[in-house]
Design brief:
There is one protein chain. By secondary structure, this protein is of the alpha+beta class. The protein has 2 domains: about 270 residues, Gamma-adaptin ear (GAE) domain (Immunoglobulin-like); about 180 residues, Rossmann fold (3-Layer(aba) Sandwich), CATH 3.40.50. It is about 25% helix and about 25% strand. The strands form 3 sheets. Strands 1, 2, 4, 5, 13 and 15 form a 6-stranded antiparallel sheet that branches. Strands 8-7-6-9-10-11 form a 6-stranded mixed sheet, with helices on both faces. Strands 3, 12, 14, 16 and 17 form a 5-stranded antiparallel sheet that branches. Helix 6 links the parallel strand 9 and strand 10. Helix 11 packs antiparallel against helix 12. The longest helix is centred in the last third of the chain and has 18 residues. It is globular, with a radius of gyration of 23 Å. The N and C termini lie far apart (about 55 Å). The relative contact order is 0.20.
């Protein structure tokens, strides 16, 4: 089988909540009280952990990549407040993908590289943990395409709290400071009505852009649909062929005027995405935060989704990872794994519950999937049960007209296939390679990814957490922190979660 020139890594491995009575505390030293009892209307889409599937009857696992990181920052905000995150707020793939991993860079003209590791599963040692990683091509700021950006900002009354519009204005000031003279920025706001605060303005007029941001204030109800229409129209009127064309929507997601249902808003965004204008969603605030809607908008808008709980997080998303946030290097990226039933009894994809695709969707270029930004890494983990090990799987009756044939593949554990499109193309390309059934020494990255996944399973009280414990998470992660400040912060989050769990 021909191996691709990509670098890829594999490692096998709408509800509301009642806030904790403790005050919300933020790393930026700004304190903000939680909403009054009974007033919390935060919403999260329901997630049920992926089950184990028997490889003999379900050999294919297909899903869309996800580079969102909102769940991690939101979980951090909740733990800092003294509240254990609601189960549905914990999307394990977003926790894992919050951290960049050291995957090989792509070779040749490939937009990304793929790598795979197979190691013993920490929480179920008789199982394998397969870690799959994609590494997007890096892009220097000076060589990125010119940008046509439209800031679509919620300035309704609910955005007046310190951790909403005031934080957002500081965050966007950081982004404006990174603009080049050939970039352009427009500002659209919406509350009871929408308006163009700043027409498309060259980056050379930075003082004018900053002044427009500084003058914004909050008030009124939220008429988001009208703002979306105006923002996309503004982006289309200033479209840069071959450049970056993106709407940056910043809101708490509490749309309550005009088109406000999830179905209507997501269909609107899906239609607008066909114009070639991508979407970045920045979530803010607490109490009325609508995570379930914002995640869907980013997904349908061919974009990414981050949650800004502190100015430090804004710097990470809009400055340190600006190229990955703004520049798409591959779109509609899908992965399909075929497991060898001669080696695999069963398997389970950890996370990505709302990114699953049908087997037929892999080859269907009409089916939307995730986008990969410049320099981004994407990690997926599978827990794999070797043949001979017992595992509970959903039972099905024997088939009357099918007979299992002899499994092939020799010592291969699985085959990985990847499909993607050029950012401005409509026809996908396909890559494929096999992963042998051979344990490799666990790298620090693999151990840390496993620790984050185990942390997520404990927060979710997953039925598949095995012998997971807070102590094991700390042990795994502590040995893999290095000099990464984000990994060091993770250790403190684990200790906070452990303390809450033991109360």
């Amino acid at each position: 089988m021909r191996r691709p020139t990509l670098a890829v890594v594999f490692a096998f491995a709408a509800c509301s909540y009642a806030p904790h009575p403790a005050s919300y505390r933020w790393a930026s030293s700004v304190e903000e009280a939680p909403p009054p009892a009974g007033m919390n209307t935060e919403s999260y889409a329901r997630l049920d952990d992926n089950p184990f599937l028997e490889a003999r009857h379900n050999p294919l696992s297909t899903f869309s990549i996800d580079v969102d990181t909102a769940s991690y920052a939101n979980v951090r905000r909740l733990l800092a407040s003294g509240a254990r995150p609601p189960k549905d707020a914990v999307r394990i793939e977003e926790l894992v993908n919050y951290f960049p991993f050291h995957y090989p860079a792509p070779a040749g003209d490939s937009p990304f590289a793929v790598h795979a590791e197979v190691l013993a599963c920490p929480w179920s040692p008789a199982h394998r943990l397969v870690k799959l990683g994609l590494k997007g091509r890096e892009l220097e700021t000076k060589s990125r395409p010119a940008a046509n950006l439209v800031f679509l900002l919620d300035v309704s009354g609910s955005m007046g709290e310190p951790r909403k519009l005031p934080l957002l204005k500081k965050a966007l000031q950081l982004l404006v400071a990174q603009l080049r003279e050939d970039d352009r920025v427009a500002i659209v706001v919406y509350a009871g009505a929408s308006g163009l605060v700043l027409p498309s303005t060259p980056g050379s007029e930075r003082a004018r852009i900053l002044a427009s941001l500084d003058e914004l204030s909050a008030g009124g109800s939220t008429h988001g649909a009208a703002g979306i229409q105006l923002a996309y129209r503004t982006a289309e009127e200033n479209y840069r062929k071959g450049g970056i064309n993106r709407v940056i929507l910043a809101t708490d997601g509490d749309f309550n005027v005009g088109t406000s249902s999830e179905g209507e808003l997501t269909r609107l965004i899906e239609t607008k995405a066909k114009s070639g204008v991508a979407l970045t969603v920045l979530g803010l605030g607490l109490g009325n935060y609508k995570d379930s809607l914002l995640e869907k908008l980013a997904d349908r808008g061919n974009g990414n989704y981050a949650y800004l709980d502190t100015l430090q997080e804004a710097k990470k998303v809009l400055v340190e990872q600006a190229s990955g946030t703004l520049v798409t290097i591959a779109k509609d990226v899908k992965l399909q794994l075929e497991f060898n039933p001669a080696r695999v009894q069963a398997y389970r994809l950890i996370g990505y519950e709302n990114r699953l695709l049908r087997s037929e969707d892999f080859n269907d270029d009409r089916k939307d999937a995730g986008e990969l930004g410049a320099g981004h890494t994407v990690t997926a983990l599978y827990e794999v049960v070797p043949v001979g090990e017992h595992v509970e799987v959903p039972a099905i009756d024997p088939l009357e007209y099918q007979r299992p044939s002899a499994a092939v593949g020799g010592d291969e554990l699985l085959t990985v296939k990847v499909r993607y499109k050029h950012p401005e193309g409509e026809t996908s390309r396909r890559l494929s390679f096999a992963v042998p059934d051979a344990l490799t020494p666990a790298t620090p990255d693999a151990r840390f990814a496993a620790a984050v996944a185990e942390f997520g399973m404990l927060l979710r009280d997953s039925p598949h957490k095995g012998r997971s414990s807070w102590a094991e998470v700390l042990e795994l992660a502590s040995a893999s922190v290095g000099d990464d400040p984000h990994r060091r912060e993770f250790l403190s989050l684990v200790r906070q979660a452990q303390s809450l769990a033991e109360e």
